[in-house]
Amino acid sequence: MADAPDSRPVHDWATDYDIFDPDYVRDPGPVWDDLRDRCPIARTERWGGSWMPTRYEDLRKLAKMVPALSSRSPVLVPPPPELREVLVAEAKMYGSEAPPITSDPPEHKPYRRLILPFFSPHAVAEGVPYTRALCNRLIDGFIAGGRADAAADYAQQITPRVIAHVLGIDPARADEFVTWVRGLIELGQTQPELN
Q: What separation in angstroms does the CA of 143 have from each of 18, 59, 148, 150, 165?
């Protein structure tokens, strides 16, 4: 299990950021604007320690620094030791923990080839009507109420539902699929019991 979260307030985002800080979660824009000007690559020891590049060009350069920087473990909050052992065993068996996201060249290439057909211009064009209809349905679901959380009620719903559609998951299970994705990628980072 990861160490207990550091609940001290952040005093300097350049040297001690916390992406789970409620104010940051609500509106990260001011933090990023500040960091881009005075410290474009921030560092923290919270959540096991990490770096946070804030400018596109820096991030682009860092992504190409393989093998010095690896994609093998991109999560911010380290998994508990017992899960880490399972992930390491799977990585040895399959070459990566969650390909293609967690694989480096040359292992990345065959995984990437498997999913490229889903992202070809033709495949993406075929998905536009479904995605457009989905977006309209989501808006219709909250427009009468006159308010919505743009992230939770709209943006966070689109990607998992489109992926579920591409994978052929029953649309009636879309809410369940969204819950799984959010539990694994977002909420599970600070609440491992959801994974």
A: 33, 37, 8, 12, 24
